[in-house]
Amino acid sequence: MRIRATVAAVSGALALSAFAVPAAHAAAAPNVTFSNVKVNKAKAIVVGTAKTGVTVTYTLTHPANVSIAPDKLGTGPILYRGSSLTEQTAAFGSDEPGTCKAASTTVANCTATMYFRPAADYDIADADAGSWNVGGVAVTSGGVLKWQGGLGTTKLQRASKLTVNASPEPVKKGKTITVTGALTRASWNSGKYLGYTGQSVKLQFKKKGASAYTTVKTVKSTSGGALKTTVKASVDGTFRYSFAGTTTTPAVSATGDYLDVK
Protein backbone atom coordinates (compact mmCIF):
# COMPACT_ATOMS: atom_id res chain seq x y z
CA MET A 1 0.00 0.00 0.00
CA ARG A 2 1.26 3.46 -0.87
CA ILE A 3 -0.16 5.84 1.70
CA ARG A 4 -0.14 9.64 1.46
CA ALA A 5 1.04 9.34 -2.15
CA THR A 6 -0.41 10.96 -5.24
CA VAL A 7 -2.87 9.04 -7.40
CA ALA A 8 -0.26 8.97 -10.14
CA ALA A 9 2.23 7.30 -7.80
CA VAL A 10 -0.35 4.73 -6.71
CA SER A 11 -1.30 4.02 -10.31
CA GLY A 12 2.34 3.77 -11.29
CA ALA A 13 2.95 1.24 -8.55
CA LEU A 14 0.01 -0.81 -9.81
CA ALA A 15 1.41 -0.62 -13.33
CA LEU A 16 4.78 -1.91 -12.23
CA SER A 17 3.23 -4.77 -10.28
CA ALA A 18 0.94 -5.68 -13.17
CA PHE A 19 3.44 -5.57 -16.02
CA ALA A 20 7.16 -6.16 -16.02
CA VAL A 21 8.12 -3.53 -18.60
CA PRO A 22 5.49 -0.82 -19.25
CA ALA A 23 5.90 0.79 -22.66
CA ALA A 24 6.54 4.53 -22.85
CA HIS A 25 4.58 5.35 -26.01
CA ALA A 26 1.36 7.35 -25.82
CA ALA A 27 -1.98 5.59 -26.23
CA ALA A 28 -5.65 6.07 -25.42
CA ALA A 29 -6.76 5.41 -21.85
CA PRO A 30 -8.53 2.07 -21.39
CA ASN A 31 -12.26 2.40 -22.04
CA VAL A 32 -13.46 0.68 -18.88
CA THR A 33 -15.67 1.67 -15.95
CA PHE A 34 -15.89 0.53 -12.32
CA SER A 35 -19.12 -0.05 -10.38
CA ASN A 36 -20.52 -1.98 -7.40
CA VAL A 37 -17.33 -1.44 -5.42
CA LYS A 38 -17.48 -3.00 -1.96
CA VAL A 39 -14.60 -2.52 0.44
CA ASN A 40 -14.47 -5.08 3.25
CA LYS A 41 -18.08 -6.15 2.50
CA ALA A 42 -19.21 -2.55 3.12
CA LYS A 43 -17.99 -2.67 6.74
CA ALA A 44 -15.47 -0.33 8.34
CA ILE A 45 -11.83 -1.38 8.01
CA VAL A 46 -10.52 -2.00 11.53
CA VAL A 47 -6.74 -2.24 11.85
CA GLY A 48 -4.80 -3.02 15.00
CA THR A 49 -1.01 -3.14 15.25
CA ALA A 50 -0.49 -6.07 12.86
CA LYS A 51 -0.72 -6.34 9.08
CA THR A 52 -4.36 -6.58 8.00
CA GLY A 53 -5.72 -7.69 4.63
CA VAL A 54 -9.06 -6.42 3.32
CA THR A 55 -10.97 -7.75 0.32
CA VAL A 56 -12.39 -5.35 -2.27
CA THR A 57 -14.87 -6.54 -4.89
CA TYR A 58 -15.99 -4.58 -7.96
CA THR A 59 -17.60 -4.88 -11.36
CA LEU A 60 -15.59 -3.95 -14.43
CA THR A 61 -17.45 -3.00 -17.62
CA HIS A 62 -15.45 -2.92 -20.86
CA PRO A 63 -15.95 -3.04 -24.66
CA ALA A 64 -16.21 -6.53 -26.10
CA ASN A 65 -12.95 -6.01 -28.00
CA VAL A 66 -10.97 -5.09 -24.86
CA SER A 67 -9.14 -8.01 -23.30
CA ILE A 68 -9.15 -8.31 -19.50
CA ALA A 69 -6.38 -10.89 -19.58
CA PRO A 70 -3.78 -10.21 -16.83
CA ASP A 71 -1.08 -9.49 -19.42
CA LYS A 72 -3.31 -6.92 -21.17
CA LEU A 73 -5.12 -4.99 -18.44
CA GLY A 74 -4.56 -4.50 -14.72
CA THR A 75 -7.23 -3.02 -12.47
CA GLY A 76 -7.58 -2.29 -8.79
CA PRO A 77 -9.16 -0.11 -6.09
CA ILE A 78 -7.94 3.25 -4.82
CA LEU A 79 -8.81 4.97 -1.55
CA TYR A 80 -8.29 8.71 -1.56
CA ARG A 81 -8.97 11.90 0.35
CA GLY A 82 -10.08 15.12 -1.30
CA SER A 83 -12.95 16.42 -3.39
CA SER A 84 -11.94 14.33 -6.41
CA LEU A 85 -9.18 12.09 -7.70
CA THR A 86 -7.69 15.04 -9.60
CA GLU A 87 -7.63 17.16 -6.43
CA GLN A 88 -6.88 14.47 -3.85
CA THR A 89 -4.61 15.07 -0.86
CA ALA A 90 -3.67 11.43 -0.26
CA ALA A 91 -4.28 8.10 -1.93
CA PHE A 92 -3.29 4.46 -1.83
CA GLY A 93 -4.22 1.23 -3.57
CA SER A 94 -3.79 -2.51 -3.60
CA ASP A 95 -0.30 -3.98 -3.87
CA GLU A 96 -1.28 -6.13 -6.83
CA PRO A 97 -3.96 -5.89 -9.56
CA GLY A 98 -7.32 -7.46 -8.92
CA THR A 99 -8.33 -10.85 -10.30
CA CYS A 100 -11.17 -10.56 -12.81
CA LYS A 101 -13.53 -13.26 -14.10
CA ALA A 102 -15.73 -12.64 -17.12
CA ALA A 103 -19.46 -12.60 -16.43
CA SER A 104 -20.25 -11.75 -20.06
CA THR A 105 -18.42 -10.39 -23.11
CA THR A 106 -18.47 -6.89 -21.58
CA VAL A 107 -18.70 -7.40 -17.80
CA ALA A 108 -16.26 -8.92 -15.32
CA ASN A 109 -16.44 -9.54 -11.60
CA CYS A 110 -13.19 -8.66 -9.85
CA THR A 111 -11.56 -9.12 -6.47
CA ALA A 112 -8.51 -7.36 -5.03
CA THR A 113 -6.80 -7.34 -1.65
CA MET A 114 -5.60 -4.22 0.14
CA TYR A 115 -3.02 -4.62 2.91
CA PHE A 116 -2.66 -2.26 5.86
CA ARG A 117 0.73 -2.41 7.57
CA PRO A 118 0.93 -0.14 10.63
CA ALA A 119 4.16 0.95 12.29
CA ALA A 120 6.49 -1.62 10.72
CA ASP A 121 6.91 0.18 7.42
CA TYR A 122 4.80 3.28 8.13
CA ASP A 123 2.20 2.67 5.46
CA ILE A 124 -0.47 4.18 7.68
CA ALA A 125 -0.29 6.70 10.52
CA ASP A 126 -2.75 7.61 13.27
CA ALA A 127 -3.97 10.65 11.32
CA ASP A 128 -5.10 8.41 8.46
CA ALA A 129 -8.03 7.03 10.47
CA GLY A 130 -11.45 8.26 9.38
CA SER A 131 -13.39 8.51 6.14
CA TRP A 132 -11.86 7.78 2.72
CA ASN A 133 -13.33 8.03 -0.76
CA VAL A 134 -13.30 4.99 -3.04
CA GLY A 135 -12.13 4.90 -6.65
CA GLY A 136 -10.65 2.57 -9.21
CA VAL A 137 -7.65 2.52 -11.54
CA ALA A 138 -7.04 0.60 -14.77
CA VAL A 139 -3.69 0.31 -16.51
CA THR A 140 -2.85 -1.25 -19.87
CA SER A 141 0.23 -3.29 -20.69
CA GLY A 142 1.57 -0.10 -22.26
CA GLY A 143 1.37 1.71 -18.94
CA VAL A 144 -1.62 3.89 -19.92
CA LEU A 145 -3.88 4.76 -16.99
CA LYS A 146 -7.50 5.53 -16.29
CA TRP A 147 -8.78 6.72 -12.91
CA GLN A 148 -12.38 6.77 -11.76
CA GLY A 149 -13.45 8.36 -8.49
CA GLY A 150 -16.72 8.90 -6.66
CA LEU A 151 -17.44 5.20 -6.16
CA GLY A 152 -18.42 5.44 -2.50
CA THR A 153 -16.75 5.89 0.87
CA THR A 154 -15.25 3.66 3.54
CA LYS A 155 -13.99 4.13 7.08
CA LEU A 156 -10.51 3.25 8.28
CA GLN A 157 -10.51 2.75 12.06
CA ARG A 158 -7.95 2.09 14.78
CA ALA A 159 -8.82 -1.09 16.68
CA SER A 160 -9.92 -0.61 20.30
CA LYS A 161 -9.71 -2.61 23.52
CA LEU A 162 -11.62 -2.30 26.78
CA THR A 163 -11.09 -3.93 30.18
CA VAL A 164 -13.05 -4.07 33.45
CA ASN A 165 -12.45 -5.18 37.03
CA ALA A 166 -14.99 -5.01 39.87
CA SER A 167 -13.57 -5.31 43.41
CA PRO A 168 -13.50 -6.37 46.13
CA GLU A 169 -15.01 -9.74 45.46
CA PRO A 170 -16.82 -11.41 47.00
CA VAL A 171 -18.53 -8.45 48.65
CA LYS A 172 -21.30 -8.00 51.19
CA LYS A 173 -24.63 -6.66 50.00
CA GLY A 174 -24.87 -2.90 50.31
CA LYS A 175 -21.13 -2.35 50.40
CA THR A 176 -19.34 -0.09 47.90
CA ILE A 177 -17.41 -1.65 45.07
CA THR A 178 -14.92 0.01 42.74
CA VAL A 179 -15.08 -0.73 39.03
CA THR A 180 -11.91 0.05 37.10
CA GLY A 181 -10.87 -0.48 33.52
CA ALA A 182 -9.09 1.06 30.56
CA LEU A 183 -10.03 2.09 27.04
CA THR A 184 -7.16 1.83 24.58
CA ARG A 185 -6.79 1.92 20.81
CA ALA A 186 -4.10 1.02 18.33
CA SER A 187 -1.44 3.60 17.60
CA TRP A 188 -0.22 3.04 14.07
CA ASN A 189 2.68 5.39 14.76
CA SER A 190 4.09 3.43 17.71
CA GLY A 191 2.71 -0.03 17.00
CA LYS A 192 1.19 -0.19 20.52
CA TYR A 193 -2.22 0.23 22.14
CA LEU A 194 -2.41 3.59 23.91
CA GLY A 195 -5.02 5.18 26.16
CA TYR A 196 -8.04 6.83 24.53
CA THR A 197 -8.80 9.74 26.83
CA GLY A 198 -11.84 11.97 27.26
CA GLN A 199 -14.30 9.38 25.96
CA SER A 200 -17.74 8.57 27.37
CA VAL A 201 -17.95 4.90 28.39
CA LYS A 202 -21.00 3.18 29.86
CA LEU A 203 -20.78 1.02 32.97
CA GLN A 204 -23.28 -1.79 32.50
CA PHE A 205 -24.60 -4.56 34.74
CA LYS A 206 -26.27 -7.89 33.99
CA LYS A 207 -28.07 -9.52 36.90
CA LYS A 208 -27.40 -13.23 37.40
CA GLY A 209 -29.82 -15.14 35.18
CA ALA A 210 -30.60 -12.12 32.99
CA SER A 211 -29.98 -12.11 29.23
CA ALA A 212 -29.04 -8.46 28.70
CA TYR A 213 -26.98 -5.68 30.24
CA THR A 214 -28.47 -2.42 31.51
CA THR A 215 -26.56 0.84 31.83
CA VAL A 216 -25.73 1.94 35.37
CA LYS A 217 -23.87 5.18 34.65
CA THR A 218 -21.53 6.86 32.17
CA VAL A 219 -17.85 7.42 32.97
CA LYS A 220 -15.21 9.53 31.17
CA SER A 221 -11.85 7.98 30.37
CA THR A 222 -8.93 9.85 31.90
CA SER A 223 -5.14 9.71 31.51
CA GLY A 224 -4.06 6.51 29.78
CA GLY A 225 -7.69 5.72 29.01
CA ALA A 226 -8.31 4.86 32.68
CA LEU A 227 -11.87 4.27 33.90
CA LYS A 228 -12.91 4.28 37.55
CA THR A 229 -16.20 4.61 39.43
CA THR A 230 -18.00 3.23 42.47
CA VAL A 231 -21.41 1.58 42.93
CA LYS A 232 -23.27 -0.25 45.68
CA ALA A 233 -23.33 -4.04 45.59
CA SER A 234 -26.87 -5.38 45.49
CA VAL A 235 -27.13 -8.78 43.78
CA ASP A 236 -24.91 -11.27 42.03
CA GLY A 237 -24.14 -10.31 38.47
CA THR A 238 -21.65 -9.17 35.86
CA PHE A 239 -20.20 -5.72 35.28
CA ARG A 240 -18.71 -4.48 32.05
CA TYR A 241 -17.70 -1.24 30.36
CA SER A 242 -19.09 -0.52 26.88
CA PHE A 243 -17.85 2.09 24.39
CA ALA A 244 -20.09 3.24 21.52
CA GLY A 245 -17.18 4.12 19.22
CA THR A 246 -16.27 7.17 17.13
CA THR A 247 -15.60 7.85 13.46
CA THR A 248 -11.99 6.76 13.90
CA THR A 249 -12.45 4.03 16.51
CA PRO A 250 -14.92 1.09 16.54
CA ALA A 251 -17.33 0.23 19.34
CA VAL A 252 -16.08 -2.26 21.91
CA SER A 253 -17.32 -3.90 25.11
CA ALA A 254 -15.19 -5.43 27.82
CA THR A 255 -15.46 -9.07 28.74
CA GLY A 256 -17.72 -9.02 31.79
CA ASP A 257 -16.41 -9.44 35.35
CA TYR A 258 -18.73 -11.49 37.59
CA LEU A 259 -19.32 -10.22 41.13
CA ASP A 260 -20.41 -12.51 43.94
CA VAL A 261 -22.55 -10.64 46.50
CA LYS A 262 -22.87 -12.29 49.90
Lay out the secondary structure.
Elements: H1 7-18, E1 33-39, E2 45-47, E3 52-61, E4 73-82, E5 88-93, E6 99-102, E7 107-116, E8 130-140, E9 145-148, E10 153-158, E11 160-167, E12 176-187, E13 192-195, E14 200-207, E15 214-220, E16 226-232, E17 237-243, E18 252-253, E19 257-259
Q: Give the termini separation.
A: 56 Å
Task: Return Rg in Å.
Answer: 24 Å
Task: Report on the biggest sheet.
Answer: 6 strands, mixed
Order of helices and strands: HEEEEEEEEEEEEEEEEEEE
Structural class: mainly beta
Task: Give the number of helices.
Answer: 1
Strand content: over 45%
Count every beta strand, where a strand is a DSSP E run of 2 or more residues: 19
Overall average residue pLDDT: 89
Name the poorly predicted regions.
19-26
- Secondary structure: helix percent: under 10%
Q: What spatial form do the alpha-carbon principal axes imply?
A: elongated
Summarize the structure.
By secondary structure, the chain is mainly beta. It is built from 1 helix and 19 strands.
Observed structural traits:
mainly beta; 262 residues; single chain; five-stranded antiparallel β-sheet; elongated
Descriptive notes:
With 262 residues, the chain is mainly beta. 5% of the residues lie in helices and 49% in strands. It has 1 helix and 19 strands. The chain has one helix spanning 7-18; strands spanning 33-39, 45-47, 52-61, 73-82, 88-93, 99-102, 107-116, 130-140, 145-148, 153-158, 160-167, 176-187, 192-195, 200-207, 214-220, 226-232, 237-243, 252-253, 257-259. Strands 2, 4, 5, 8, 9 and 10 form a 6-stranded mixed sheet that branches. Strands 14, 15, 17, 18 and 19 form a 5-stranded antiparallel sheet that branches. Strands 1-3-7-6 form a 4-stranded antiparallel sheet, with no helix packed on it. A hairpin with a 5-residue loop joins strand 4 (73-82) and strand 5. Residues 19-26 have low confidence and may be disordered.
